Protein 1
Amino acid sequence: MRMSELSTATGVAVPTLKFYLREQLLHAGERTSPNQAQYDASHVERVRLVRALLEVGGLSVAQAARVVGALDSDLPLSSVFGVAQRAVSIPAALASADDEATDAEPAPTAGQTRIAALCESRGWRVYPNNPGLPLAARVLDTYAALGLGHISDTVLDRYAQAADLVAAADLASVAAVDELTEMTRTVAAGTVLGDTLLAGLRRIAQEAESFRRFPLPDGAPAPGTSLLDEQDC
Amino acid sequence: MRMSELSTATGVAVPTLKFYLREQLLHAGERTSPNQAQYDASHVERVRLVRALLEVGGLSVAQAARVVGALDSDLPLSSVFGVAQRAVSIPAALASADDEATDAEPAPTAGQTRIAALCESRGWRVYPNNPGLPLAARVLDTYAALGLGHISDTVLDRYAQAADLVAAADLASVAAVDELTEMTRTVAAGTVLGDTLLAGLRRIAQEAESFRRFPLPDGAPAPGTSLLDEQDC
DNA sequence: ATGAGCAGATAGTAGCACTATCGATAGTGC
DNA sequence: GCACTATCGATAGTGCTACTATCTGCTCAT
C-alpha cells in the first residue's frame, strides 16, 4: 500500500499524512528504496486512531503523539493507562499551568484538601502525580473563587460516585479484551473517548432532568424522546 | 473603579481586558466622559467567570462569549442551561463537524440508533438538537470504526447511569440557589466546570480501580492515598 | 525514456488569543 | 495653568498550532 492509497483509505490528505509522519503520530512505512515505502493495515488503523484522538477526543497533535508513542513502546498496560490519562488533561492549558512555584512547596489549596479527603473516604489510592488530582482541585478552587456558593459535599460525592461507576466499567471493558496490543489500543481510545462520551450523556441527562424538575410553563414545544422521530422544521 | 484597577483586581492585563470588551466577553463600563469609564464589582466577577470558562473549562473566546451573552439577556433559566450546554461541546471541532449534508436527511448511524434507544430506556426526553446526542453518537461510531470491539451495552448503560447521577446533582445544586441572577451564573459555571471536574475524578478513579484490578507485580512504588502526604522526589 | 508518483525539506497559510503601539483626549498633583 | 499619567478606540503585530504548498531529487510502471 502506497501513501496515496493510505490517503484514500483513511480520507486524510497526503500532505497531512506526511505531517503526521514528521510529528511522530504515524510510524514510518517499510522502505523499499530511498524514496519509496510500503504502508499496511497497521498504518490505516493508526491514522484512524489519531483522527479519533484529534477530532473526537479534542487532543492536540503533541498530546496525541504522546499517546501513540506509549502504544509503540511496549510499556506495561498500567503505564499505557497512565500515559493516556496524562496526555489528555481536558483543557490543555491546565496541563502545565499548575507548576509555577517549583522550589517552595506552597500550602495546599482548599480544593486540594477536599480532593485528598475525598480520596481517603472513597479508598482511592493513586500516585500523587495523577493528573486528575490538580484538575479536580482546580475546579473546586475556581468554583469557590467565582463567589457562588461552593460545591457541596453531597454534590461532590455524587460526582465521585459517578466517576467510580464509569471507571469500573472502563476497567471491565479493558479486561474483556484478550489480545495485548488491542488491549493497549482499547485503553488509549477508551480513556480519551470516554470523557467525550460521558460529557455527551451528561448533556442529555441534564436536559432531561431539567424538564422533570422545571416543567415548561405553558404548552411550549415539548421535547421528543429521541433524535430519530424528529425532523427539523 | 478604573480599568487599571480592574486589571490588578483580576490579574488580567489591561490590553486583554480591552480585547474582552471588543469580543463581548465583558460588558462596557459606565461612561463618565468620551474616554473614561467606571467599572464595578459586576465586572470583576464577570472577568473571573470568563477566565474560569477559558482556563478551566477550556472554552474558546467565541464559546465563552455565547455563554456570557446568555447571562446578559435575561433568558429563562432553562434557556441558559441550553445555551451553556451548546456553547461547550467538549471538542470544539465537533460543534460544526456534524452538519455536512443539510439537504438530504441521511440514514441514522448505528451510534445514533443506540443513543436513541438509550434515551428511550432511560426515559430521557430531550430536544432533538441537544448537543449531547451527536456527541455521544459520534463517540460510539468512532469507537466502532477503530476496529476494537464496540462499547458494550452494559458499559454504555453504566455511563448513562453515571450521567444521570451527576445531572441530578447538578440540578439539585442549582435549585438550592435562591437568587435568580446567581442561579444563571451557577448554571453556566456548573455546566462548564462540571465536565472538567468529572473528567478529573474519572482519572483518579480509573487509576485507583486499575490498582485494585491489576496489582503491581513486585515491590514496585505503591501509590499513596492522597496528594498531601507526599513530596516529589 | 518519459511521465506520474514518492520522500524529504523548506516555506507558507489560516485561525486563535492575545499584545503593542498610536493619537486624541481626560483626570490628577503641584 | 501645566506636566504627567491614564484612558479610549483603532490598527497592526506576535506566537502558536495544524495543517498545506511547493520544490528537488529520485524511482517505477509503461
Protein 2
Amino acid sequence: MNKSPLLQEVTELHAGICNGLADPTRILMLYALVDEPRNVNDLTETLNLPQPTTSRHLKILRQQGLVIGEREGLYIYYRLADKRIIEALDLLRTILNDRLTYRASLVENQNSNQKQE
Amino acid sequence: MNKSPLLQEVTELHAGICNGLADPTRILMLYALVDEPRNVNDLTETLNLPQPTTSRHLKILRQQGLVIGEREGLYIYYRLADKRIIEALDLLRTILNDRLTYRASLVENQNSNQKQE
DNA sequence: GAACTATATGTAAATATCCGAATACACTTA
DNA sequence: TAAGTGTATTCGGATATTTACATATAGTTC
C-alpha cells in the first residue's frame, strides 16, 4: 500500500468530507440547498432548529468545502459548493434503501414461512 | 420540510453510513478491499496498524453495513458489502481533487501575476 | 482436551462532537 | 451614530470516538 504523505493527506481530506456528511442535520441541510440558495434564517425555520445550531453546522459544511456562503445585502445565502455532493449522497441513500428493502424482504419470507409452518 | 419519523430515521442511517466513511483508516480499508476479500491480519499488515485497531475499525464498518465478514477455516475474510460504496467514495474524491486542482491553479495565477508585476 | 492462531473486546486516557443559552459581531437603514 | 435584523461565536456540560495495551474469545489442529 502506498503510504506516501500525499496519499495520507488527501485521504484525511477525503475523510473530512465524509465527516461533513456524517450528521443527519447536515444531510437535511444539503438536500434543502439542492434547488436554490438559502439564508440562515430560512434554513433555521425549514429545519426547525435554533439559529446558532444552524450556523454551527453551516460552518462545518463550509470548512469541508461542501457549501459556499455569499452575502447579498442583509442576508448570507448558502449554496452547494458542488452539485455532485448530492449525487454522492443519493448513491449512499440508494445503497441504504436497497439494504432496507432486502431486510424487509427477509422479514416477509420469515413471516410467510411462519404461516406455512 | 417533511419531518416524518421515517425520514428522520432513514436520515440517521444515512448519516451513519457517512460516519462509517469518515475516517482515513477506514477509507484505506475499503479501498484495500476493492479487488478481493482480505482477512484481519492481512489488513493489519497492509495498513500497518495494531491488530486491535484493525478489528475495531472493521467492527464499525460492519455495523454500518459497509463490509461483510465471513469465516473460512481459520480466517475471517472481509469484503465490501456493496461495490457502489467505492463509487460514492470515488465521487467524493473527485470532488476533492477538482477543488485541490482549482486551488492550485489559483496559486499558479497568483505566482504568474506576481512575476508580471 | 491442549496448544495454537486469528480475531474481538475491556479498559483508560486523550480528544473530539453536539447542543442550548447567552452573547457578540456585521451589515443595513433611518 | 443608533436601532434593528441577520449571522456567528463562546462557554458549559454531556456524550462519543480513537488509540494502545492487555486480555479474552472462537475456531482449528494435533
